[in-house]
Here is the input.
Amino acid sequence: MFKPDFLDRFDRLVAFDAETTGKRAPSPEFIRKQPFAWKPPGVVIELGFVEILRDGESWKLGESWRTLVNPDGPIDPAAIKIHGIRPVELNGAPRFPMLLSKLRDFVAQAPIVAHAYKNERDFLDYEFARAKATSWGESAYDEERYICTQRLFAQLYPGAGKSLTSMCDRLALDSSSRDARHGALLDAEMTADALILLEQQLKHGISETPRTWTSA
Here is the structure.
């Protein structure tokens, strides 16, 4: 349960989203059973981060960072239909280990904001371990570092649809940019915008919700 003052001690947050090959990250147990020479495939193909900075009694968006990631593996056709990222676009993209230093610097000590955070956390944990930056099954960032907008939204709007698009639609945040394709930075920015609004509603109560963008 989120309390109204749960963000009061912070001056900087980082919203995060990843686009993937369409494959789920294999479990540590599965990976430990594989032959020694087996190389785990990449999963993340795009990362998006955006700062959320204290601005008086509210927040504003700060710097952002978006990058493609070469997974050294195939992308499911169904995933391409969602994010529109084709294998040829990733040929010259950096591999995840090359991005670790910038990723760590950008996140720094900030809490990490994500929608349905367990999915995003699992992708990060997997890629950190694949890059040998952590051990399999180890968390790249402590569980308490994550703030889940899906959980906060469910607390304020019980029974409402919990997807990122459904949340933004219910909050009257324009999500029409996602109609054509999803994107890691776009989704991170939408997550950040939702968090800012949800925190205000948690503190001051929910006023009548405006007409949504997709409803007639």
